[in-house]
C-alpha cells in the first residue's frame, strides 16, 4: 500500500494538470484548442508535453513550468524550463513567466494566483 502511494500521487498530479497533445516542436497547432476542459479544468492542447501553441500557431518550447517535476520531460536533451520567481506566474500553457496581475484585471481561470 505504502509503495503504491507515490505512483498514485504522480498520477493524480498528471491528471489534474495537462492533457498534452501529440504535435511536436515546430509543427502547426491551433491556438484555440488550448483550453480548460469543462468539468475537470484539465488543460488541453494540441502540442506535446514539452511545447505550447504559440501566437503564430506553431508548437514552441515551453518557457516555464508549474510543477517541480513536470510530466513528459523524459528526453534528457530537452532542458526543463524554470519555475517563475516571486512576483511572476506561469500561465496554463506554460509559455513563459509573466508578471503578476493587479487585483481586478482579467486573468485565466483560477490564475489569480501565486508565484508559480
Ligand atoms: C521549423 O520548420 C521549418 C519548416 O519545416 C524549417 O525550415 C525550420 O528550420 C524549422 N526550425 C527549427 C528550429 O527546427
Ligand atoms: C512560434 O514557434 C515557431 C517554431 O518554434 C517559431 O518559428 C516562431 O517564431 C514562434 N512565434 C512566436 C510569435 O514566437
Ligand atoms: C530527443 O530530442 C531530440 C531533439 O528533439 C531528438 O533528436 C531525439 O531523437 C530525441 N530522443 C528521444 C529518445 O526521443
Structural overview:
The chain is built from one helix and seven strands. It is an alpha+beta fold and 116 residues long. The protein has a three-stranded mixed sheet, with no helix packed on it. Strand 2 and strand 3 form a beta hairpin. The radius of gyration is 15 Å and the shape is globular. Mean pLDDT is 80; it is low at 1-16. Bound molecules: 2-acetamido-2-deoxy-beta-D-glucopyranose (NAG) (3 copies). One 2-acetamido-2-deoxy-beta-D-glucopyranose (NAG) binds at residues 26, 54-56, 58, 60.
List the helices and strands and how they pair.
Elements: H1 4-15, E1 18-19, E2 35-36, E3 43-44, E4 51-53, E5 59-61, E6 88-89, E7 98-99
Parallel strand pairs: 1-3
Antiparallel strand pairs: 2-3, 4-5, 6-7
The structure holds 2-acetamido-2-deoxy-beta-D-glucopyranose (3 copies).
Keywords: Signal
Signal peptide: 1-20
